[in-house]
């Protein structure tokens, strides 16, 4: 239990950093930075827990809040002193957080007794919905509607996890699904993979 | 019970199609199409169930998810092959879905034991909130703030339903309220009805 | 109990007025005015109750809905007849509503048994989240990301309240925390206080 909680806090911290950096890029200031960091870090898991009707995970565990505040402050100090926004290193950290959140969200949903397909959706929500809410609150078109395979990585990881559970132990299934999300996301970033479903008649008009 | 579930699935499918079409019109691509279709189809009922503190309706019924995925794929294939977006026929289907959702949302709220005025709000949420969330996620001004009488149709249908229940059976009340929403909506579309509450001093400045 | 319910209704009415005025300023019309007024008035408390997993406060108490509808109609009539938007008087009323909501939200969270730091967040949500949702629904950058110390006033009031409870009675703690939010907010408005955490390299480029 203890090392899962540790991973969860790490995931929150990484997502909070990514939220604070996007706040800076969108020139949000003041308390808005912490608000966006918080929404990015715990928004997905919060919506998952509300839908599953289980206690919201951070409600009785202030450690999540402390982690987010700490991560936000460190990010603010660092941006103000170095003026450089981390590119690649943040993306790798974000992919790690994503992979953690997807596997843990899917597992939590299965523990709550929902069907496998619903569990995959819950894992995807855990990974994506915080970032979606962050973009909605900052009045931006959500990144997941544009970003390379972000949601597809989550869905794939969830499907891999619920499938492997039929054959393998929870731990091994979790590790393989985690690696699946991580590698797929890093590959999508590296080679700029994306999915197009529409053949828009005129790409230049918008 | 069975035919209500069927109606509910039809309503979800219709709303998913409308969500996917709006995704195309707003040039959302990839997985975003399915996300917007899903939010349109189940967003209103999900918020209703969260507020009523009853189990979220699609959590243990993957049929809703399958219906939405199927409707999204058909819509994508159809748009890509025909390049024509359905106008009138979609509006009629959307009005049918709206009428279904309002009556069923109001009835579900009454079954959960809330007062009549709250049940009318829940019926309206069921009909409107999915589309509102879709527009918010796509970073658009919500259609219900502009569209002809969309919310007014929902409120009227809910009021008719809770009023008629005092005199008539559930089935007859539901059918009359359903027709009320449907006809009011189609009339508002046909004759471009809308409501203005403010006398803006200068309509041209915005 | 009775006078708390009265304060709560007053807070809702004031926030509904502020929501309807902002709807006018953003040229939202028709039913959208009532939607934005409602979201402003009960959005924060609704999210708080969902997170705490307690019954949503307005679900069985239609008085909140009646108050919001009444406040919206009065605001609409008044704007249409006078064409003047109240400036200072609205800000003072809004600050009063904010102070009420923060103290009552923090207290409700403590009663639900969450840790003090979570209770402060819940008090802040009660005060700020309705306005945040209003801005998100109206497709605007949320005011709390720009407005002078809005969220900081809430956080301060919540921290004062949970701290004083260790030494003083509930009533006296509530009154002091209430005055703390109110005076801090009025001072921030009067002297234009704001917080900057980032040193943006080039303020003119955006």
From TrEMBL, chains A, B, C:
Annotated localization: Cell membrane
GO cellular component: plasma membrane
Signal peptide, first to last residue: none
Protein keywords: Cell membrane, Membrane, Transmembrane, Transmembrane helix
Transmembrane segments: 6-24, 31-51, 63-80, 116-137, 149-168, 174-193
Record's keyword annotation contains DNA-binding: no
Record membrane topology: Multi-pass membrane protein
Chain ranges of the Glycine transporter domain: 6-78, 92-164
Keyword Kinase: no
Family: Belongs to the UPF0126 family.
PANTHER family given in the database record: INNER MEMBRANE PROTEIN (PTHR30506), UPF0126 INNER MEMBRANE PROTEIN YADS-RELATED (PTHR30506:SF3)
Protein name as catalogued: Trimeric intracellular cation channel family protein
């Amino acid at each position: 239990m203890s090392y899962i909680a540790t991973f969860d806090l790490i995931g929150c911290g990484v997502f909070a950093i990514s939220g604070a950096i996007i706040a800076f890029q969108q020139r949000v200031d003041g308390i808005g930075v912490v608000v966006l960091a918080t929404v990015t870090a715990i928004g997905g898991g919060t919506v998952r827990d509300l839908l599953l009707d289980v206690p919201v995970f951070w409600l009785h565990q202030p450690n999540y809040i402390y982690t987010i505040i700490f991560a936000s402050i460190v990010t603010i100090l660092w941006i103000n002193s170095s003026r450089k926004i981390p590119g690649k290193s943040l993306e790798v950290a974000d992919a790690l957080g994503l992979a953690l959140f997807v596997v843990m969200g899917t597992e939590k949903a299965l523990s709550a007794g929902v069907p496998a397909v619903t569990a995959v959706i819950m894992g995807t929500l855990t990974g994506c919905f915080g970032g979606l809410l962050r973009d909605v609150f900052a009045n931006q078109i959500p990144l997941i509607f544009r970003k390379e395979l972000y949601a597809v990585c989550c869905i794939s990881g969830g499907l891999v996890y619920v499938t492997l559970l039929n054959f393998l132990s929870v731990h091994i299934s979790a590790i393989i699904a985690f690696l699946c999300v991580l590698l797929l996301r890093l590959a999508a970033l590296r080679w700029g993979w994306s999915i197009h479903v529409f053949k828009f008649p005129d790409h230049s008009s918008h």
